[in-house]
Amino acid sequence: MILPGATLGMLGGGQLGRMFTIAARTMGYHVMVLDPDPLSPAGQFADTHVCADYQDAQALAQMAQTCAAITTEFENVPADTLRNLAAHCPVKPSAEAVEIAQNRVAEKSWLRQHGFATAPFAVISTAADLTDACASVGFPAVLKVSRFGYDGKGQARVADLAQAQAAFASMGGEVCVLEKMLNLECELSVVLGRNEAGGIALYPVSENIHEAGILDISIVPARVSAALATQARDAAMAIAQQLDYCGVMAVEFFVVDGDQLVVNEIAPRPHNSGHYTLDACLSSQFEMQVRALCNLPLGATAQHTPAVMVNLLGDIWGDSQPNWAALLRYPQAKLHLYGKQSARPGRKMGHYTCLDNTLETALALAKQIRAAL
Fold first, then answer.
1. Do 269 and 358 belong to one domain?
2. 334-349 pLDDT, tens per residue?
3. Which CATH number do you get for residue 36?
4. 101 in a structural domain
5. Segments forming the whole domain that contains residue 159
6. Domain check: are 174 and 191 in the same one?
7. Contact 299, 289 (CB under 8 A)
8. How confident is the model at residue 146, as a pLDDT?
9. SS3 of residue 151 by DSSP
10. What is the per-residue DSSP string for 238-267?
11. Considering its fold, how many domains does the chain have in total?
12. Alpha carbons 298 and 303: distance in angstroms, whole number
């Protein structure tokens, strides 16, 4: 076990790194953050902010010499950086797991190979691949760039071959996945922690509503049958075990065709839909990340209160701060701001979580507050 007083490393300085840093420092650890942004949200709370690129040799050497263990807040950290650091100290999750999750082709191929249901898809390496792919996948479909796409970025809905060709050209000829657009009943996610010994702690299933490809609202527990919730948790656990994953991860699911589960993607890190755990569970997903990284017993995941989490995007800022008084007047509403210096449309600036005795009242309050903001 790595005990309080040790220094933990975080690759990435965004809001997920910030919330990990707060959890780690609360538990008595020191934190070193590596992020190229001098104004990084995590760097504001860290003991040390190394402002450098994720492949900077001197910065990596400093982390390797200082940190007892290292983790990451996002999947696009180069896998070679993780391998470099793993030669000196524990790195969780592993480069191998992150390498699968950071590439849609690798991820969907891995899921299919191991028997997990996905939407029908085809790999598009060149424009010539589109004709056969469109015929096999069908329309409507979504063309998604294989690397560095998130929150709806790097993807386009296409209704025919011509649109698919135009979208592929607009993505610069990058390798893509053409994925059948499914008729969704709802979207779910499961966040979990897994340790070196293979122990797993599962959080309740979250029901997620997206707008323009960005998570808008998470409702927990999800309004689905107990059987479907169990199926989702079992599938997420099986994926973590098959990956031999260590750390916190999330699995996103589509529900289609009468409660059939389809895996959308794997996130090798804490997840936006797990932010409710900060206020509604015995252990947050960020405390869980600290515990898994330090080889401590995994935290308790029981949810004590129904919760609705709402993302706060830069769109609501305008030329001034939102009307925070309209939120803070409610003692069962919890505000979390990420310390980002500039607001812009689509940028995640914070979130709030409404807690109440029933999901219905929590959801009604969440919608009332958003209208007021």
1. yes
2. 999 999 989 999 999 9
3. 3.40.50.20
4. no
5. 120-180
6. no
7. no
8. 87
9. coil
10. HHHHHHT--EEEEEEEEEETTTEEEEEEEE
11. 3
12. 15
Q: What is the CATH number of the domain that holds 330?
A: 3.30.470.20
Alpha helices in the chain (DSSP H): 15-26, 57-66, 79-86, 95-101, 104-113, 130-137, 161-170, 226-243, 277-280, 285-293, 325-328, 359-372
CB atoms within 10 A of CB 115: 8
> Assign residue 347 a region: left if phi > 0, alpha if psi is -120 to 50, beta otherwise?
beta
Select from 137, 164, 180 the last residue of a domain: 180
131 and 63 both lie in a single domain: no
Please give the pLDDT value at position 153. Answer: 65
Residue 113 domain flag: no
Q: Indicate the pTM of the whole model.
A: 0.94
Q: What residue has token string 């009604």?
A: 364
Type of residue found at 358: T
User: Do both 367 and 255 map to the same domain?
Assistant: yes
Ranges of residues in the chain whose predicted pLDDT is under 70: 148-153
Q: Which of 126, 118, 122, 115 is nearest to 136 (CA)?
A: 122
Q: What is the pLDDT of residues 245-296, one digit of tens each?
A: 999 999 999 999 888 999 999 999 999 999 999 999 999 999 999 999 999 9
**What are phi and psi for residue 342, nearest 5 degrees?**
-135, 135
> What tokens were used for 128?
């010539």
Q: Would 110 be classed as within a structural domain?
A: no
